[in-house]
Design brief:
Elements (H helix, E strand, L loop, with lengths): L7 E4 L2 E4 L7 H4 L10 E3 L14 E5 L6 E5 H5 L20 E3 L1 H10 L4 E6 L4 H17 L4 E6 L4 H6 L7 E6 L2 E7 L4 H11 L2
């Protein structure tokens, strides 16, 4: 499915989106500041159910793990300029994010973006061969999708829970659920096409 037009739906109580974007909060409120920082939501805060899901999405910062509210329209236009409202680092830089099990679960539980995850290991030759292609795919798929890398040697329990039997394995998650998986190395074009084809 082509990720071209915004497509929002509810699945198991979570917001699911194929195309998101940053909203300049200051400009939207009539201010003069041209900052592109997103609105930070602390883990302790309650997420308001009255938020218009056609405009705001939750995006986990790859640097500090803070949950940010961003505008779907800007992400849909491919705008990567948004910064975390807590640590002020870019929310997207066109590179996969290496995560441990805890950070993976944070993205899975709180991020409204589709997550494309590469499960790999340092000793795996095909994994090392695919790494540059996965990095190239991140440049094409962000900010409409978050790309993560999980080292199965360091996250063995997670690999077992997800039934990872061979590597590299690509898994696509949306709305906190697995929607597709594939084992074996792909080139950048193959990764992008596979991800777009299976995104809900």
């Amino acid at each position: 499915m082509r990720l071209g037009l915004p497509d929002f739906q509810r699945k198991s109580g979570r917001k699911v989106a194929t195309l998101p974007t940053f909203r300049n909060e200051t400009q939207a409120n009539g201010g003069l500041n041209s900052s592109r920082e997103a609105t930070y939501i602390s883990d302790e805060s309650n997420l308001q159910e009255d938020i218009d899901v056609t405009e705001k999405l939750h995006v986990v910062c790859p640097h500090c793990g803070a949950v940010n509210r961003v505008d779907a329209a800007r992400l849909g236009q491919g705008d990567r300029s948004g910064k975390c409202g807590k640590c002020h680092q870019p929310l997207f830089d066109g590179h996969p994010v290496e995560v441990d099990e805890a950070r993976f679960r944070k993205h899975l539980d709180r991020d409204d973006l589709p997550l494309l995850v590469d499960f790999w290991a340092p000793w795996c030759g095909p994994c090392r061969m695919m790494a540059p292609a996965f990095a190239q795919a991140a440049q094409q798929l962000e900010p409409r999708m978050r790309l993560l890398k999980v080292n199965t040697e360091e996250a063995q329990q997670l690999g077992a829970q997800l039934g990872i039997r061979s590597i590299p394995t690509l898994m696509l998650f949306q709305g906190g659920r697995e929607v597709a998986r594939m084992s074996g190395a792909l080139d950048a074009g193959g990764i992008v096409n596979w991800a777009r084809q299976h995104a809900v």
